[in-house]
Amino acid sequence: MTDWRAIESRVFMTTGRRLPVVLVRGEGSRVWDDAGKSYLDFFGGPAVTSLGHCHPVVVEALIDQARTLTHVSNVTYSVPQLQLAQLLVEHSCCDRVYFANSGAEANEGAIKLARKWGREKRSGAFEVICAQDAFHGRTLAMLAAGGNDRYREPFAPVMPGFVHVPFDDIDALRAATSERTCAVLLEPVQGEGGVNVPDDDYLPAVRRWCDEQRLLLILDEVQTGIGRCGALFAYELSNIEPDIITLAKGIASGVPLSAFLAKEHCAVFSPGDHGSTYGGNPLATRVGYEVLRYVIENDVPAKVAEDGRYLEQRLRGLEDRLDLVNGARGKGLLWAVALSRDAAQEVVLDCLERGLIVNNVRPNAVRLCPALTVSREELDEGLAILERALAQVGGGAAK
Ligand SMILES: Cc1ncc(COP(=O)(O)O)c(C=O)c1O
User: Fold this and answer.
1) How many angstroms separate the CA atoms of 336 and 339, rounded?
2) How many helices (H) and strands (E) are present in the chain, helices listed first?
3) Which structural domains are found in the chain, ordered by start?
4) Backbone phi, psi, residue 88, to 5°
5) 12 C-alpha vs ligand 1 centroid, how far in Å?
6) In sequence order, what E strands does the chain have?
7) Cis peptide before 160 (omega within 30 of 0)
8) Cβ 121 vs Cβ 268: under 8 Å
9) 18: how many CB neighbours lie within 10 A of its CB?
10) For residues 368 and 200, what is the distance between their CA atoms, to the nearest angstrom?
């Protein structure tokens, strides 16, 4: 058997630590390694393969579109791009869409839009208030927007124009606002920061503050959008409407595609302001269109909300039985099990050994973000493995 791990260490740039497994095939919520061992995938890319692996809707769309028209530039019109844009506008609070290829790129576009809006409509304001522990991607501007010094410091000088406040702290956000501020950028639930769920009244309070101060509210729904939290967009759960939304990950269930959406009043780009060679090409947007149609027509968000209630009850139950578990937080099918010590990596490796892929989103938190299509039986199977791993790593101690 080819030693892919040895090849990686010879030819690949090391930018992160991989799990010791080479995955070669996937179907639904399952993946297989190069030795034929199967795993339940509760990581999914992370949170990318929204319809699971190789869903027929995705496969058919890819094949059909590959045979029809894979790529044309944005100097001509193309049908799938406009069909998807139309569907997003019909089902969101926004009026206009632009497509890109990754979450970071969508956020970059959103920040450009906010800066142009600030220049034109708020006397040159350019600063964006962001949250500590936020994650918005790895481009230079998104490192500056993100709330993690570790990602930023090696690449100094940091791009100016971003200020950080504690997440879920409206007073801090108010205090950080000045005449330089043009926008607030937040994740409705912080994903990479550890699945941090704010109080129910936080986002409504942020919305009110933005209205009072005439600031744009940008929600990074790269991880939370397209049904992940039990609504098509997580902002719906707070009964608010952002001015700008960014999407990626689940939007095309594994095919690289992202988007930023804006309300008409802040869609201030004019010709020449933005562009992308691949962004919104027919192949990716056709898949995105079919995925979104599937999610909407099958009311996947309602199914996810129900799964979320079930997961919540099951995960909170773990805390009563296992010393290692110190609570659970999340929404829909995005959850973290909090640990009483930094044992997440051990738990992840133990799960892997037992046939479940999860991730250590923090040293003391294990994230679960299975496919939105995961069955109740698969959830139970994954939870049983997780519980055995937590018991093993925690010394088997039951409370
Ligand atoms: C909320 C959020 N924004 C942005 C990104 C960056 O997306 P990408 O890696 O596609 O650039 C991520 C990735 O994890 C994310 O979770």
Assistant:
1) 9
2) 13, 15
3) 4-54+300-393 (3.90.1150.10), 56-297 (3.40.640.10)
4) -65, -40
5) 22
6) 23-27, 30-33, 38-41, 96-100, 127-131, 162-165, 181-186, 216-220, 244-247, 258-262, 325-331, 334-339, 356-357, 359-362, 365-368
7) no
8) yes
9) 10
10) 22
**Residue 42 falls in the annotated catalytic set:** no
pTM value is: 0.98
Q: Which residues line the pocket of ligand 1, CB cutoff 6 A?
A: 102-104, 107, 135-137, 187, 191-192, 220, 222-223, 248
Residue closest to 218 by CA, chosen among 122, 111, 301, 83 = 111
One-letter amino acid of 101: N
33 classed as catalytic: no
Which residues, listed in sequence order, are joined to residue 131 by a DSSP beta bridge? 165
Render the burial of 316-344: b for 16+ CB within 10 Å, e for the rest.
eebbeebbbbeebbbbbbbbbbbbeeebb
One of 168, 220, 243, 307 is an active-site residue; which one? 220
43 CA distance to ligand 1 middle (Å) = 14
- Residue written as token pair 């409705």: 188
Q: What is the DSSP letter of 250?
A: G
Burial (CB < 10 A; 0-12, 13-18, 19+), residue 34, is middle
Using an 8 Å Cβ cutoff, are 15 and 8 in contact? no
pLDDT in tens, the chain (399 residues): 899 999 999 999 988 889 999 999 999 999 999 999 999 999 999 999 999 999 999 999 999 999 999 999 999 999 999 999 999 999 999 999 999 999 999 999 999 999 999 999 999 999 999 999 999 999 999 999 999 999 999 999 999 999 999 999 999 999 999 999 999 999 999 999 999 999 999 999 999 999 999 999 999 999 999 999 999 999 999 999 999 999 999 999 999 999 999 999 999 999 999 999 999 999 999 999 999 999 999 999 999 999 999 999 999 999 999 999 999 999 999 999 999 999 999 999 999 999 999 999 999 999 999 999 999 999 999 999 999 999 999 986 555
